[in-house]
Amino acid sequence: MKKSWLLFMCAAGIYTGALAQDTIPDAARIQGIVNYLASDKLKGRGTAEKGGMKASRYVAKQFKKLGLQTVNGSSYFQDFTFDKKAHKDIPSRNVIGFLDNGAARTIIIGAHYDHLGTAALFDGKYPIGAIHNGADDNASGVAGLLELARHYVKNKGKEPFNFLFIAFGGEELGLQGSKHYTAHPLMPLDKTHFMLNMDMIGRYNPERGIGIGGYGSAEEWPAVFKDVQQPGIKFFTDAAGKGASDHHNFYVNGVPVMFFHTGGHDDYHKPTDDAPKLQAASEASILQLEIQLIDRAMAFPVLHYVGEKG
Fold first, then answer.
1. Residue 211's CB: how many other CB atoms inside 10 A?
2. Sign of the CA dihedral 70, 74, 76, 78?
């Protein structure tokens, strides 16, 4: 059982949980997760395809191993259907695990687990029948989701916020999983401290650095980000809370967001987005940067949402 304690640095007002060695994001674990999710066995994790269902069960199994609770009765799954052009009643599901710290407010950590699969639902936009393994997009984000869940379950502190970890389905077909969750939340959205989304965090380019969106979505983000550094990782911020990934639906529903993304590359949405190209060590460092920001954000009992003008 985790010891209950809070240490606030007087000068900065920052929550700091104990950092045990086995809670530090690990490149080998990250690579192993991506190797499985982006293997030909899962055939690209397509929505409404067997590989996508296998991926959802894998995430649920990892949540259970970590000891996360369910919030949808006894199930880690939130099943839903949606329409996309001529395709009707397409089945998908979100995978949801909860770390209950007995707090009044909750931090949501998310990443989508689906990819293009064999492209059957994309009406010829991508080569139908070819396996699109999606190592960076977004097995990398799911690996990050599981590493952050591991960290906050296994560290020695009891944080002043609960954590809800969500692996979204149907993102590639229009942010469907987050759209469904925000329309049918299993915990009150107005009790959400913020939502952190990871989508393509596995191809770090040191010349570009990692982009962090949503910087303008909370009044407190400049204070949270002030003087934050992570060895070997350069980052830049973008004010926009809206965007082409699952944080968008939380932002438009009044939730402050952070969005992590290492940028586009030549393998984007192609069958060549494969696991050996992952920058696992850099991803581990990016996750340590995220932990710093999450912990600093917990120094504020409430973040004040800022909507975009226009």
1. 15
2. negative
Question: What is the pTM for the complete model shown?
Answer: 0.94
List the helix and strand counts (H, then E) for the chain: 7, 10
pLDDT in tens, 182-212: 999 999 999 999 999 999 999 999 999 999 9
Question: What is the per-residue pLDDT for 309?
Answer: 74
What is the spatial distance between Cα 200 and Cα 302, in angstroms, rounded to a whole number? 28
> Which amino acid is present at 168?
F
Amino acid at 255: V
The Cα–Cα gap between 174 and 245 comes to 9
For 94-134, what is each residue's pLDDT tens digit?
A: 999 999 999 999 999 999 999 999 999 999 999 999 999 99
End-to-end CA distance of the chain: 48
Among 247, 242, 237, 163, which residue's Cα sits nearest to residue 197? 247
- Tens-place pLDDT, residues 264-278: 999 999 999 999 999
Token pair 């059957």 in the structure block, residue: 120
Structural contact between residues 109 and 43, judged by C-beta atoms closer than 8 angstroms:
no
Residues 121, 265: Cα–Cα separation, whole Å: 23
Q: Measured between alpha carbons, how far is 257 from 280 in angstroms, rounded to an integer?
A: 24
Q: Where are the alpha helices (DSSP H) in the chain?
A: 27-37, 50-66, 140-154, 176-183, 221-225, 247-251, 280-297
Q: 220: helix, coil or strand?
A: coil
Q: C-alpha angle 256/200/132, rounded to 5°?
A: 135
Partners of 132 in beta bridges: 117
